[in-house]
Amino acid sequence: MVLEDWGPFDNGIEESILNKGTEDEIELWLANILRERGIVKMIDMVTIDELGRILFQEKQTASVPASLVKLPKDFYFKVRILFNELKKKNDVATYENIKKAYQMLSEIMSIRIRKIIQLAYLNVEDENLMDRMTTEEILVYKNIKYAIEKGPGDIIGNPFSA
Asked: 40: burial class by Cβ within 10 Å (0-12, 13-18, 19+)?
């Protein structure tokens, strides 16, 4: 939600102008800067309740690699914004919320990384599964898959070459 008129801004591809009272889609990094300046209010952000919901869903299917809960590609960036916002408040209740959110996030990441490792090991390449991963998780998946495929040759060398 745009709180104040802003722009024009040229990102090298297109020019953006934000008009007060509208809901526009802009890059998350830019939205975060404008949010800090009081120009926009970001919607669709991660909350502690949402972390709890995601954790519950991931726990329900923890042993099934192909059951990743769909997360937005920028999920971890949004979580960082959540933590930054919580840190601005300086009281005991907020400290407990940060601790709770961090524990939930750690558990979510642990379950998801375990599933991603299994998917890479099983050589599963399903666009639907890739669509459920964040950008960071896709990189983890591809790197693990590469290490599994190329690892033995990199470690012992190619026994068929001279």
From this structure: buried
